[in-house]
Automatic annotation (TrEMBL):
Keywords recorded for this protein, A-Z: Transferase
Entries under InterPro entries matching the protein: 4-PPantetheinyl_Trfase_dom, 4-PPantetheinyl_Trfase_dom_sf
Keyword match Transferase: yes
The protein's name: 4'-phosphopantetheinyl transferase superfamily protein
Gene Ontology molecular function, alphabetical: holo-[acyl-carrier-protein] synthase activity; magnesium ion binding
Domain of life the protein comes from: Bacteria
Span of domain 4'-phosphopantetheinyl transferase: 100-193
Amino acid sequence: MPLIRTIQINPGCRLGVWRIEEDEAFFREKVNISPAIHHPHKRLQHFAGRYLLQELFPGFPLSSIQIMQSRKPYLECNSLHFSISHCGDNIAAIVSSNGAVGIDIEDVKPKIEAVSHKFLSPEERAFIDPVNALPHKTVCWSAKEAVYKWYGLGGVDFKENMQLAPFIFQPTGFITCNFNKVDKNARLYLQYLMEDELCLTWTNDAEDLTVPAITENTASGH
């Protein structure tokens, strides 16, 4: 069965990874959507991602999915929060009834090294394991992609708005990320798995550090 991994994170949150071995017709029979996507493989990924949402949460309201200007899919009623990621024939999705989530799946490829200066600060580059530099940087990239999807509104500078706390590279692990923008200040807790040159990273736990604006009355004690 192409569902190669599921993790029940808590009673209201579940993730899964699907490896596509089916043709588009398989998903079309089970997913009642008509995406305006012309590229065959991207359309296949789209169908598989929606199908995976239903596998994780039977009865998931696919017809109610809306798309933000940032291209993030969401449910207007916010009854469920979800995130989807594609990497070749691998699809990852996370669904939660508790709050915002983000997920990312990445191949370990040299292109990560080529662009690492664009998403890693000097402090982050300092803790990269020189023996495992490429996979370590891949985890960092994947973590920031998951945080980007958690935020969902776009306009994020991966180097300036996200700071990863130092962590030792291992096949599985936990990461803390501070997210700082004018409208949002939060500390996110992520988990990752590295297996067969494929990195899966997700977040379903965030601490909101945004300070409410002080009104004149509040400041004066009235």
